[in-house]
Amino acid sequence: MARRGRDELGKYVEWGSADIHDRAIRLARDRLSRRNRIVGRLAAAGTACVLIGALGVAWALVPGPRWRAWVGLDAAEQPGASGAREIGARGFAEARRPPAFALPSAPVQAGGKAEALREWSAAPSRAFVDSVGLHVQKSAAAKLGSATRRRIEELGVRQLATAAQARPPLEWMAAVAPPGASILLAIRDFTVTPLEALALLGPRLRSVQLSRPFGRDWVDILKMDEGWAVRDSRVLFELVRSTPALAHLRVVGPAIQQPFDTALFGDLEAWVDEGAFESRPGPLPPEGALLDEEIARARRLFPGKPIVAAKASYCTGATVRRVSEAAQARYIPRILLTHFDRQVLRTYLAPFVDGASARGEDDAGCGLLRSDGSPKAAFGAIKTLLRLMQPEGTGGAARLSMALVGAPADLHSVLLHRADGAFVLALWLARTSGDEDAEIPVTVRFATPMSTVTWLDLRDDRAPHSWQQVSDVSVQVSDAARLLVIAP
């Protein structure tokens, strides 16, 4: 029998019945008041005034030496100057990088501190594979037709996410998602209900997420009515928990995009099963203080809850966050490995395909596939990474006694245990990536001789190196993650 009660606005509803869907839709459609629309117009007018003032200041600075010194032109024009900077979108972003987020960019000489032999804990490699996801949107990928599904299967990813405000995107997602996929659905304004999504996606629907009703800039933030996150999260959570057909779904909170979101969202702990944040560090490396702050904010807002990265990306399009495709191929495996090492439950790379986005240039060229469906270098790197992590067998967590000799301070590592008994050690330098490798030798020493050790690059054009019956191997590490497959 349906449970009766009142919602946050005092409206009479029958929780668990079909009426909740209509009530939720009406609640969402009535959200924006006349006051909020007026505030939005005033904010837009204020933004225009600020932009006009900024253009005036910039015009005053252009002829003077302060402008030239600010963007680094003086250093770039001096012959042989070591401080010369790349001028352009990426060079400007690098020059203005906040000092708190800076990572070592100067080479660290080999011959660092020799680590003593110790026991390393290795997580199951399958857990890492299950932490890798894709955010797939019909708006960009539909033009590829059936090639979208083939590319998803080729990549080897089973965790998928999408956002839908109508039935057609869900019907399309039902067609392109492989049978064994797990889907996270982001819904906005309840224009698509979880029951409708379950009817179309079936058992592949595993999670539902409350999507932000507006964009991420401060003008849109002013349009949000107070308490929307708590109210809508409660409606979604109680709907899922009171409907037997939906009881298996996990409820994911709205993703944190900005520092002030923790205050804007309110107390969501009681109304979510998992917390969420978005990570777009480009052109900065994925490791470091920026990630520390993103995860800390998520854990403060969702204490005690597992955390997922609802969207993570490095963009190669026309944006101030732009990186080259070669740098994207280095950063994407690193962000996946770093998130896993920091106990982020899942990381959804977004978007899967380049294309137009409601976020404008923020999402320009962030996909693993170009708009014509051709793969970027990052696609091949992830494909190789996942393929090497999931051989046949039943393996779990394990331990391996080893040491890293000559490791620089910014060397990062993740040790995994495959189902066939082999260990996979990922090594990389937490540095800004470019188009060329800056390699440093590091020796991996084992307590006992290993039967076979193979050093692999995630790029297809690099041949692997193998050793048999060795107790130590010397490898060249760089800003690109490389794998040492160790068969005891």
Intertermini distance: 59 Å
Instruction: Please report which band the strand proportion falls in: under 5%, 5-15%, 15-25%, 25-35%, 35-45% or over 45%.
Output: 15-25%
> What is the radius of gyration?
25 Å
Helix content: 25-40%
Number-wise, the strands total 17
Shape category:
globular
What is the mean pLDDT?
Answer: 78
Q: Reading side by side through the largest sheet, how are the strands ordered?
A: 8-7-6-5-4-11-10-9
Structural class: alpha/beta
Task: Report low-confidence residues grouped into runs of 5 or more.
Answer: 1-18, 60-112, 215-219
What oligomeric state do these chains adopt? single chain
How many strands, which pairing sense, and closed or not: the largest β-sheet?
Answer: 8 strands, parallel
Helices, by number, come to 16
Short description:
The chain is an alpha/beta fold. The chain is 34% helix and 23% strand.
Report on the architecture of this protein.
By secondary structure, the chain is an alpha/beta fold. It has 16 helices and 17 strands. The protein has helices at residues 19-29, 34-61, 65-71, 73-77, 89-95, 125-130, 138-141, 147-155, 167-176, 194-201, 218-223, 228-242, 261-265, 289-301, 325-341, 377-389, and strands spanning 3-6, 12-15, 118-124, 132-135, 159-164, 182-187, 205-210, 250-252, 275-279, 307-312, 346-349, 398-405, 411-417, 423-429, 440-457, 465-477, 482-487. The protein has an 8-stranded parallel β-sheet with strand order 8-7-6-5-4-11-10-9. Strand 10 (307-312), helix 15 and strand 11 (346-349) form a beta-alpha-beta unit. Helix 9 (167-176) packs parallel to helix 10 (194-201) and helix 15 packs parallel to helix 16. The radius of gyration is 25 Å and the shape is globular. It starts with a strand and ends with a strand. Residues 1-18, 60-112 and 215-219 have low confidence and may be disordered.
